Amino acid sequence: RKVMIFSTCERDTRHKLARRTQYKKVIATMTMSYRRHHHSPPLLLLFLLLSIPYAAAFSSPSPKADSSSSKSTTSTTLSPSTVTSKLANVLQNNNPFQRKEKEEEVPEPTFLESLGLESNVEPKRFYVSSDQFLDIVGASFPALFRLGTGIFAEGYKLSLTPQDSSKYTIFSIGKYQLSETCSPSLLERRRRNIQPIILYDMEACPFCRKVRECVSILSLDVTFCPCPKNGIKSRQKIKDKYGDDTTFPVMIDPNTGIELFDSDDILTYLFKTYGDGVVPWTLTIGNALVPLTAALGLLPRFNCGLNAKYSNAPSQPLTLYSYEGSPFCKLVRETLTELEIGHTQISCPRGSSNRQALLDRTGRFQVPYLEDPNTGVELFESQAICEYLRKVYGVLDTPVKYM
Questions:
Q1: Which of 83, 75, 82 has the alpha carbon at shortest distance from 54?
Q2: Alpha-helix runs per DSSP H in 299-353
Q3: SS3 readout for 31-93
Q4: Contact 197, 224 (CB under 8 A)
Q5: Which of 339, 338, 357, 337 is nearest to 347 (CA)?
Q6: Would you write out the chain's pLDDT as a tens digit for each of its 403 residues?
């Protein structure tokens, strides 16, 4: 009996020694593998501590003693190549020292997306939402009362030309397309790259509308400085410079240095300087008929674009592709006037070469089209543009006049 007990103890001791030897081999193999790529002692120590579970997983169980035989069995050991391959698989799947792969980065929302506009921002030609329908109807009255003045460029002409997808056209007919052109003098002026004239006006003023119709007919680029009632920006600037009795519109031509304050004088000057010299009859018929029809057209939305609202002025002027006679463009100009936001208008009446320029720039023609250099936003839809302007530059009304 003593002999049997001694043999069992001796066998267990050999098994423990075998497992310890195997564990040392595993640790040594792991250490050598790690040293090939890393040389930092603190990291090596941490690696050894964390590698104990991996090494224990590789050690084979001790062979069970056979009670019927006194012969001891030797423990099986893993070859270095097997340990290395298993270690590589483990480290590949769960390596505490391996830098985790960067998760797929979610693109940050653009400035326009961060605003959370409720209006449709995708350009759709002649799209009118249900809540904008009445506004469009009211904004169409001025063009009806003014017989469409400002919709067509000077010297407007239709022609049938071979189909060319890169050219602006109304529609195509087989291999041909219907193209619009304007007076050669307007095309020649565009080649000269003249500076935009500066115009101080109000959207709800019938005399200012006369000048805007002239600007559209001549396809001029104009920097508008809105001057609504109670305005504290451009309006106050003109009052301080020329006196409280100054009326609008006020035109300043940086190309010639001319400053004019009467709407009829401005019409004569613009057509003589930038047109064929002849003022259209729709702008000269009767002394009072033109402003009267303009005022009647403005009645449905007379209060829109009339009074100033609190706003933050942009550091750089906005760019608006627009033309007089479009109800969609009128809604945007009303908002710009109320917020006293200066902007440069690129006039795009029918027949203007500016339509082709917008097509080349954006791949489509649709107005209004707004570019804001302060935020990098570009928008087509009138309802979305108005909502954007109010959210970015509008300020909530306050009972305190001065903050």
A1: 83
A2: 327-338
A3: HHHHHCCCCCHHHHHHHHHHCHHHHHHHCCCCCCCCCCCCCCCCCCCCCHHHHHHHHHHHHHH
A4: no
A5: 357
A6: 444 444 555 666 666 666 667 666 656 666 665 555 544 555 555 555 555 554 444 444 444 444 444 444 444 555 666 656 666 665 555 555 555 554 566 778 888 888 888 888 899 888 888 899 999 999 999 999 999 999 999 999 999 899 998 899 888 888 899 999 888 877 666 667 789 999 999 999 999 999 999 999 999 999 999 999 999 999 999 999 999 999 999 999 999 999 999 999 999 999 999 998 899 999 988 778 999 999 999 999 988 999 999 999 899 999 999 999 999 999 999 999 999 999 999 999 999 999 999 999 999 999 999 999 999 999 999 999 999 999 999 987 665 555 4
Q: The tokens of 299 are what?
A: 């009645």
Inter-residue contact 354 to 319 (CB < 8 Å) = no
Axis crossing angle, helix 41-50 with helix 2-35, rounded to the nearest 10:
140
Q: Is 152 within 8 Å of 351 (Cβ atoms)?
A: yes
Side-chain half-sphere exposure of 188, counting CA atoms within 13 A: 8
Q: Are 279 and 267 in contact (CB under 8 A)?
A: yes
Rounded Cα–Cα distance for residues 64 and 122 (Å): 76
- State whether residue 262 is helix, strand or coil: coil
Q: Which of 250, 242, 236, 243 lies closest to 200, judged by CA?
A: 250
If you ran DSSP here, which 8-state letter would residue 99 be given? P
CA–CA gap between residue 214 and residue 270 (Å, rounded): 8
Task: Return d(Cα 197, Cα 266) in angstroms, integer.
Answer: 11
Ramachandran area for residue 369 (φ above 0: left; ψ -120 to 50: alpha; else beta) = beta
Cut 0.85: pTM above it: no
Q: How far apart are CA 176 and CA 178, in angstroms?
A: 7
Distance CA 356, CA 351 (A): 9
- Here the tokens at position 84 are 């290395």
Instruction: State the Cα–Cα distance between residues 39 and 53, nearest whole angstrom.
Output: 22
d(Cα 86, Cα 95) in Å, to the nearest integer?
13
C-alpha–C-alpha distance, residues 336 and 368, integer Å: 12
What six digits make up the tokens of 24? 């040392």
Which pair of tokens denotes residue 222?
Answer: 């104009």
